[in-house]
Amino acid sequence: MKIPSSIWTLLIGIGLTLISLWYGQNHNLLPVAASNEAVLVDGLFNTMMTVSAGIFLLVEGVLFYCAFKYRRRPGDQEDGPPIEGNVPLEILWTAIPAIIVIGISVYSFDVYNDIGGFDPHAIHEAPIMQESMTMPGAAIAATLNDTPPKTAPNLNQEKSDQAMQDPATAAVRNADQIPQKQNAPGVGSVAPTIGASREKAGQPPELTVNVTGLQYAWLFTYPETGITSGELHVPIGREVQINMTANDVIHAFWVPEFRLKQDAIPGRQTEIRFTPKKEGDYALICAELCGPYHGAMRTQVVVESQAAFDKWMQEQVAANNDTLQEAIAINPANQSPDEFLAPHTKDMGINPEILHQVHQ
Fold first, then answer.
1. Which residues have C-beta within 8 Å of that of residue 318, sequence separation ≥ 6?
2. Under CATH, what is the fold of the domain 156-359?
3. Cα Rg of the chain (Å, integer)
4. Which of 291, 208, 255 lies closest to 37, judged by CA?
5. Which among 303, 106, 110, 274 is positioned nearest to 195, based on CA atoms?
6. What is the pTM of this model?
7. Do the Cβ atoms of 83 and 57 come closer than 8 Å?
8. What pLDDT is stored for residue 187 in this prediction?
9. CB-CB contact of 37 with 115 (8 Å)
């Protein structure tokens, strides 16, 4: 008995759907999801993999089927029949991809909002100055002007001043040598921010860490504690806000297991928030080409229990106090800061060249 083509089409469609759904959830292309934000990003990625697998199998299946069924037979020297087109088919294979792209775009934007990527209150609106109202056409020019007026507050400068109130942060940043840029969102010149998630919008972060990128290391300071570390330690289940800048060139803070990445830019104060949900040690990688030793700019993010984090904080505070007392007791007046701090910074994983750059 010959099976109708409609039945074959239905069976093939069901098979492709099941295979695509299975592969979309079992591709094993991503590392472990170690933050709450990673779960949202993985959902989007899995959806795109499901759709991509289905389209790939459908297109390649039709291609192989047609190549086999309509191949030239031995002895056949005739030309193929002329086919001028099929309007319904062209509409179909144009409309379906358009619908898929629009759907993924809406889903992507929703995920971006959920992880705190879009803040409508941060959109820049160039104010119309009072003097511009007296000049013909000046009001329109002021509205279209992308550059903030000189009287507008410099948010980067304000955030930098706030971070520099912490002595440990001020010791590793050279903010006095790098002018803080003014945000101009209309032309794309902004300090990138991934803020609080939708559920925690308007709430202050549970932990704030200042991060400074420099060739070729990450330095982490915990405000009001005096702690400076070459590793980032965070407690599990608490929302962490990372305030970043760079001392020299652009770097990028990227932890693959968190599914988040943010640039550290000289003259700009960038921000990222995340909530770790799985204990472990995760690689922090600079994802922006920052010089010849860019590949070596790596460190660890340690996600641990609250008790282990509190213990680590106490150990760091005690170590800093011991180092300070030792410094007061043994530092000769003729030693330079680099020479004196070299043996102490070695324990923190900071080499003398990096220390020299910090003081510069």
1. none
2. Immunoglobulin-like (2.60.40)
3. 28
4. 255
5. 274
6. 0.75
7. no
8. 72
9. yes
Question: What pLDDT, in 10s, does the model give residues 324-334?
Answer: 555 455 555 55
* Surface-to-core class of residue 169, CB atoms within 10 Å of its CB (0-12 exposed, 13-18 middle, 19+ buried): buried
263 strand-pairing partners: 252
Classify strands 240-246 and 207-214 as parallel, antiparallel or unpaired.
Answer: parallel
pLDDT at 303 over 50: yes
Burial of 349 (0-12, 13-18, 19+ CB in 10 A): middle
**Band (302; pLDDT cuts 50, 70, 90):** very high
Q: What is the DSSP letter of 26?
A: S
Query: Which of 63-67, 301-305, 355-359 has the lowest average pLDDT?
Result: 355-359
Question: Which residue's entry shows tokens 């925690």?
Answer: 200
H-assigned helices in the chain: 5-25, 36-69, 87-114, 138-144, 155-164, 167-172, 306-330, 337-347, 352-359
**CA 97 → CA 18, 22, 108, distances in Å?**
20, 21, 16
How far apart CA 208 and CA 205 sit, in angstroms, is: 7
**Rounded CA gap, 231 and 300, in Å?**
5
**Mean pLDDT along residues 21-41:** 92
Question: What amino acid is encoded at 30 in this protein?
Answer: L
In this structure, the number of other CB atoms found within 10 A of the CB of residue 123 comes to 9
Phi/psi for 110 (5° steps) reads -65, -40
Token couple for 216:
């070729």
* Residues 209/228, Cβ–Cβ less than 8 Å: no
The whole-number average pLDDT for the span 151-157 is 84
Residue 214's nearest CA partner among 359, 89, 336 is: 359
Mean pLDDT of the chain: 82
pLDDT-based confidence at 297, cuts 50/70/90?
very high
Q: C-alpha angle 342/347/349, rounded to 5°?
A: 90
The full set of domain ranges for the chain reads 5-69+91-114, 156-359
| Phi/psi of residue 200, nearest 5 degrees | -110, 20
pLDDT over 80 (residue 320): no
Q: What is the pLDDT of residues 90-115, one digit of tens each?
A: 999 899 999 999 999 999 999 988 88
